[in-house]
Amino acid sequence: MQQTPVQESQSTAPLQSSSLSERKRKARIKSLKSLVQQVLWWVLSLSLFIGLWELLSALGLLNTLILPAPHQFIAEIANQEQFMSLKVGVERTGANFAALTAIVATLTRVLSGLVLGFIAALLVGCLAAYFKIFGNLTLPVITLLAPIAPIAWIPFAILAFGIGDGAAIFVVFVGIFFILTLATVNTIRNVDQLYINTARVLGASRRQVMFKIILPAIIPDLFVILRMNLFAAWMAVLAAEMVGVNTGLGAIIMVGRQMFNAKLMFLGMAMIGVVGYLLDAGFAQIQKRVLWWKTTAQI
Amino acid sequence: MVEDHGTNLIMHTIICQNVSKVWGLDTPEEVLAIDRVSFSVEPGEFLVIIGPSGCGKSTLLSMIAGLEPPTAGKILHDGEPIAGPSPQRSMIFQQSSLLPWMSVIDNVAFGLELKGVNRKARHQRAEHFLKEVGLRSFAHRYPHQLSGGMQQRACIARALCLGTDVLLMDEPFAALDVQTRYQMQKFLLDIWQAAGKTVVFVTHHIDEAIFLADRVIILTARPGRLLESVTIDMARPRDVMSSEFERHRNLFVEHMRSEVVRAFEEQELVEMMDTRV
Ligand SMILES: Nc1ncnc2c1ncn2[C@@H]1O[C@H](COP(=O)(O)OP(=O)(O)OP(=O)(O)O)[C@@H](O)[C@H]1O
Ligand SMILES: [Mg+2]
């Protein structure tokens, strides 16, 4: 009789731990399953779309001069040297890497614009919140400039910076700078008073509150806003490349049109779709890292 | 009177003289939260401030912390008027105030970091206090990985790590379950007795007040006025089931009922008694 509880505790302990690892294993299998399922749906959805398209053009229902079938324009990747006709950002790499160079050129522009804009907006936003007079002087102007679409800045950018990287980076920069500056000021106002009071009670100066509390507290939120504006920046660069910058992914489409080569146009569009998706997915991964203390806390 | 004042300076750590606080002064939403409250705290004393919800306890405490200036009256700490927050008075809030982006040890050492103490030295000291509060093995976890009670203990460790003499505690255990709260109360008494700190502790639980306090100050419902100051001369550790405890409990209920009942509904008094330690 006395031994029963001991036996019970002995038998339940390994049972519990095994069921725990069992549950973990099951959870892993389950998440793997849902991933496989997701991939399957993607493949299914894509093949249905492409299959239908191919079928319609095989039946002769589509004018392949204007709307080429997928296998036709994807094959166009073999004729990369024709991108060279308008220098799609290829100077030294040679014709075989023309498509890759165009992708790199566009991505470099988007990313440099985003990084510069993020840093500048953080700086100006923090200064505006810290020095009241500076804020009062600058914020009204920034508020009025913010709604101007990045695309509207393209003509000015090309006049001011000429044809090239400078103009494209500038368009991305203005596209996010004003919005992000306003967001910075706004998120600073919404930082939990408890954190600020905690620091003050522990003896923090106003400067220390800014650097040790405000800054770490707002960066995750600002990153979310940056990501929301990613596509606007992406589109602005493509538009700039189409109308004046003359290199990069956007330019490929324009080259295609000028050469009456619909295959090239569609190849450019397909590349824009894929690269844009990958860019956003990359940012989502970074966001997970930056937001780790928020996301894990909410699960 | 002048002589009295002189001895006060030596005898008391914190003195509140006719302190009032009006929130939103000269606006339509003007609220008188604290109305001419005077009391003093002796060094090493465990003072509990009790009063119904919304009576201005947090307001009073944040004025002592220096986070808010009083509208009228004076607050002195060691004879000096309180002009702003100071590391000499640490505040422990009702919710955990650990910074979520820092590990537990960095949180505990944060006060020292602000002082410019180098990383190695401050971590060494923080580790000592983490051990003191039983969180050594959690040093490199993050706040959200800790239970509510652990988080509050880490907050206490942070205050101790800075070497503060006065702990201001605003219902620090109110968000915890009954079991944990009881553990935390015993833990706090141990710390207080071992370290010889002065504690000003705000609560709205009668049992918690009697269990912890050397002396209890009772505030009326809003605007908070000083209703009574009661010395609890029971030996520690106190037994909540003892007849002496029961006697004090009845005394408090009587005090608070006779004066406060007109200002707030029975409901709340019932609630205050209901949540025993
Ligand atoms: N920052 C503030 N601005 C304006 N009014 C405030 C502010 N803080 C508190 N008050 C008002 O002052 C009064 C007292 O609030 P306080 O938080 O001090 O009460 P409390 O006794 O701590 O209540 P509880 O037990 O619910 O914590 C309330 O009427 C509240 O609305
Ligand atoms: Mg309160």
UniProtKB/TrEMBL annotation, chain A:
Superkingdom of the source species: Bacteria
Places the protein is found: Cell membrane
Stored Pfam families: BPD_transp_1
GO cellular component, one term: plasma membrane
Keyword Repeat assigned: no
Alphabetically ordered keywords of this record: Cell membrane, Membrane, Transmembrane, Transmembrane helix, Transport
Topology versus the membrane: Multi-pass membrane protein
Domain ABC transmembrane type-1 as annotated: residue spans: 103-287
InterPro entries: MetI-like, MetI-like_sf
Chain segments annotated as transmembrane: 39-62, 110-130, 137-161, 167-188, 209-226, 232-252, 264-286
GO BP: any one term: transmembrane transport
PANTHER family: ABC TRANSPORTER PERMEASE PROTEIN MJ0413-RELATED, ALKANE SULFONATE ABC TRANSPORTER-RELATED, MEMBRANE SUBUNIT
Assigned protein family: Belongs to the binding-protein-dependent transport system permease family.
Protein name in the entry: ABC transporter permease
Organism listed in the record: Vasconcelosia minhoensis LEGE 07310
